[in-house]
Structure formats: C-alpha cells, structure tokens
Write a structure and sequence with these properties.
This protein is mainly α. It is about 85% helix and about 0% strand. It has 2 domains: about 1-50; about 60-270, MetI-like (MetI-like fold), CATH 1.10.3720.10.
Length: about 270
C-alpha cells in the first residue's frame, strides 16, 4: 500500500514538473520572439530616421502601422487577403492530395519511381515564375491558375516527404502485420500512416509556407485582386507603406498556417510521448 501511494505521488510530481518545464520553455520562446521583433522594429525606425529617406524609399514603422490600420479598417486589406487565402487553400488541397497519392505509389514501386522520377525532378527545375505566364494563358487570370501554381509549388516537397515517410516504416512491423493476416487497408491505416506521419507533417510545414509564395507569384503575373496584386499596385503608385502592409499581411498568413500545422502535429503525434 505504501509503495503504491509513493509511486502515485512520485508520478504526479514528475508530470507536474514536466508541465512546468513546458510552460517555462513556451514562455521563453514567446519572450525571445517578442524581443527579436522589438529589436527589428527599433533598428528599422533608427535606419529610417538617421538615413533621412523619403517615405516611398523607406517609411518608418509608425507610418506603415498607420497605413496598415487604414487599409484594414477600410476593408481594402481583407478584400485582397481573402482572394489570396482562397488560392492558398485550394492550392494546398490540390497539391497535398496529388503529392501524397503519387508519393505512396512511388514509395511502393521502385520501378515506377525510376521511370517517373527524372520527369518529376525536371519539372521542378523550372521556376514557378517562369511557368506562371503559360498557366495564365491556359487557365485565365482567375483563381484557377493561381490554385494550380500553388499546387505545383507544394507538390514536390510533400511528394519527397511522403516517399521517405512510407519507406521509413520498419520491415519487422510490416512482417508482423502480414503474419497477423492484416488486410492492405489495415496495414495502411494502422501502420504505414502513423509511422510516416512525422515525416509527412514535416513536408506539410514546408508546403504551407511555399503555397503563399505560389499564390503571390501567380498574382504578380496576372490578377485583378490579391495581396500580390496589391503589392504590384502599390509599387506603381509609389505607396511603399501600403506595400509594407501587404507584406506584413503575407507574413502573418504564412506564420498562422505554420502554427496551425504545428498544433496539428502536436495533437496527432501526442502518442509518441
């Protein structure tokens, strides 16, 4: 009885200590991010003030903040950000579906990988900015062309991670599943997906950030709305503060998507702890 009580008390203290360590680590990370951001803004403000640059060359942080608030309150920023978000989400859905499906079959068939691999690598050697005009001609300047550009940018890193993740499954576990007479679907859902999930989510982290780049590249080439279009418009009007506001919004979208995937990773991979 005494040993059981002591064991429970010890386990409780260990869990409490781990929770406190995680809280302290998170607080330190937040503090370091805030300190780094504050230092960046301070250096930026100092450079703008000492350099004496005109606003269209280097606006100070306060001017950019005022322009950001003005664009956000007037609905201009949301109008363009909404279009970019739709393109990003569509590109992610299309790119992830195609990459994970193709990656699974390539991982299962070395012959298929040898046949298709050179073409996939060759297609990725072409920059997105080079192929974007062609896609605009084929699919128009609407959302579809931007979604396809996003999907192409996302495809390759997720494909590679899918292949690596599926092939990282332990052969002994594969043999065990066969000895237990597990079906192909049971092996896929109970072994291959959980074992490959850490690598797959790593590829997804890369994909969500690249999808923002793909959307902006498409909007640079041809669009009538979106944050990329807004940046081009601001450049033509020499409205650099508005350009900074659009860039900050893009950075916020990228960070939010990355944090969303990180949260999903912690939730799905909690079993590893």
């Amino acid at each position: 009885m005494f040993i059981d009580s002591f064991s429970k008390f010890y386990s409780l203290q260990v869990r409490r200590g781990e929770k406190q360590n995680r809280t302290l680590k998170f607080s330190l990370e937040v503090a370091s991010i805030i300190a780094g951001l504050s230092l960046t803004v301070a250096v930026w403000a100092l450079a703008a003030k000492l350099g004496g640059y005109p606003v269209f060359i280097l606006p100070d942080p306060l001017t950019v903040w005022q322009e950001l608030v003005k664009a956000a309150s007037g609905g201009l920023l949301w109008y363009h950000a909404q279009a970019t978000l739709v393109e990003i989400m569509g590109g992610l859905a299309l790119g992830l579906t195609a990459a994970t499906t193709a990656g699974y079959f390539l991982a299962k068939s070395p012959l298929l990988e040898r046949l298709a691999g050179p073409y996939i690598v060759a297609s990725q050697s072409i920059p997105a900015i080079a192929i974007a005009p062609l896609l605009i001609i084929w699919f128009g300047s609407g959302k579809l062309s931007k979604v396809i550009i996003c999907a192409l940018v996302v495809f390759f890193p997720v494909l590679v991670n899918t292949i690596v993740g599926i092939r990282s499954v332990d052969d002994g576990l594969q043999t065990l599943m066969r000895s237990l007479r597990a079906s192909r679907w049971q092996t896929f859902t109970m072994l291959e997906v959980p074992a490959a999930l850490p690598v797959l989510l790593g590829g997804l982290k890369i994909g969500v950030t690249l999808s923002v780049i793909g959307a902006v590249v498409g909007e640079f080439v041809g669009a009538d709305r979106g944050l990329g279009y807004l940046i081009n418009l601001s450049k033509g009007l020499f409205n650099t503060p508005l350009m900074f506001a659009a860039l900050i919004t893009l950075a916020a979208i990228s960070l939010a998507l990355y944090l969303l995937v990180s949260g999903l990773e912690r939730r799905l991979l909690a079993w590893r702890e």
